[in-house]
């Protein structure tokens, strides 16, 4: 074989390799363009947020309805004290809380336990600026809820509401008066101050509750 033919053979092989590289480059570009197109134009629906069923209890006047309505961005003019029970879907970025609020009047509290079944968590709202008698009643109701067979293993969010009032008791005073440390030892519970004037703090309290609910879910999966 002459030198000319050898040179032509090598040039032809180089041409084939170059063509193959170009084809591979075009293929990679097409894949990249298709991926970008799907990401921009064919984005699927976001993953569904988990939903949790909660029960919300507390005496009449503790502010349960107002707090939940504010979280749902409802007009304060439409707030009416709950006499029986009501259900609200309270949306958060990482979860939806289906809250069953029970009325707190004397003639309704004795029926609370009928609505506990199926609950995954508890919200207890107390008026931190209430009278000594009402605070004593609230303490007894909270103690009863913490020890109820259908609630005792569930996460609790305890809200010391009306912190914007002059007579409001601090979280430390509420914790001591309600004897939460010995009574709720070993349970999942959060005690937080709140008022309608500080929605960021209220939302943070619910975020902590959602974390407890997620932890309980993960533990159930591991079991």
UniProtKB/TrEMBL annotation:
The keyword Electron transport does not apply. It comes from the Eukaryota. One of its GO terms (molecular function) is metal ion binding. Keywords: GTP-binding, Magnesium, Metal-binding, Nucleotide-binding. InterPro entries: ARL15, P-loop_NTPase, Small_GTPase_ARF/SAR. PROSITE patterns: ARF (PS51417). The keyword Lipoprotein does not apply. Mg(2+) binds at residues 65, 82. GTP binds at residues 58-65, 104, 161-164. Belongs to the small GTPase superfamily. Arf family. This is ADP-ribosylation factor-like protein 15. It comes from Tursiops truncatus. The lineage of its organism: Eukaryota, Metazoa, Chordata, Craniata, Vertebrata.
